[in-house]
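Cross-check.
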Amino acid sequence: MRRREFIALFCGGAAAAWPTTARAQKPPVRIGYLSSGSGTSPIGLDRVAAVKEGLRDEGLIEGRDYALETRFAGGEYDRFPDLARELAQAGVSIIVTNTIASVRAAQKLSPPLPIVMVPISDPVGVGLVASLARPGGYTTGVANLNEDLTPKLLEYLRAILPNAQVVAALFNPGNPSNLRSLDDLGPRAGAIGVKIVPIELKSPQGLDAAFSVIATHQPDALQLLGDSGNLDMSDRIAQLALAQKLPSFSSVSTYAEFGGLLSYGPSSRKFYVRAGYYVKKIIDGANPGDLPVEQPTHIELWINLKTAKALGLDIPVSLQQLADQVIE
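Predicted model, tokenized:
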């Protein structure tokens, strides 16, 4: 598997830092960050750090060039409209946001504000942008490929668990891309003799109840569908799965880092770092609707051998050799 980075949709090197005289004349730009998760979880904290890293890479220094206003929904998607309005009232010029529902809430603001989405599943298919090349309107950013990863995840599951018959799929019913993924997952899994049992997880408050439901079905494995709010609980989900002796899989690469057995997907952290490029272009006067939405070209395979050992599983050597990261 070759390592590749994001598609470069622009030419030239990094933009030059603003001249000192011009910088002194401008107050810091207020940038909004609207998250579906928690501001105190390990993933939530790392995402904010990644956004700041990306801004720093573009020559923007916090406190001097920008101020970051953060709002966290804590998995409660019905809060997005109020949180988006709070950011607008706080005077932000751009909103960085990370799930379909939050993008839609930001798109309804009047007057409109530029939106940088990171990362979104199938933004064209769910109607957030007109196209990847010319998104139009006030929205741009980066898209993941979660909707395209189902076949490979099933292949890996079958390689590790050749006799698996039932897989619980943990999903957020408020996320349209999760519903589309379920529609795709069921028939594909059925074709290899695996039954999918959908398990709803709407918010952190429902996590224990969701795992109680999972236990009643006695599945052979658990698949966590890509949802920003639920993935913010990756550490808790992985540990609860381990407590039930469930091998767990996800399409977000770092899930295995938190104790999941296997993950296969693009680097989510790179998406958040990449937000800095879009923010800088918009600050410099670019129309967000003219900035192409990028997609990753490298998909990472992570395997957690420590988890495999705890579950009594042997991971095929051939699969380990394909992995980008093997956690021992």
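Residues 20-143+268-290 form a domain with the Rossmann fold fold (CATH 3.40.50.2300). The chain has two domains: 20-143+268-290, 147-265+300-327. Passed to J.P. for a second look.
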